[in-house]
Amino acid sequence: MRGVRSVDQVGAEERAASLAKRSIKKASKLWALDLAIRCMDLTTLEGMDTPGKIAALCAKGIRPKPGDPTIPSVAAICIYPARVADAREHLGSSGVRVASVATAFPSGQSFLSLKIDETQQAVAAGADEVDMVIDRGAFLSGDYQKVYDEIVAVKEACGDAHLKVIVETGELGTYDSVRRASILAMAAGADFIKTSTGKVQPAATLPVKASDRVPRRPVRDARP
Question: What pLDDT, in 10s, does the model give residues 180-189?
Answer without folding.
Answer: 999 999 999 9
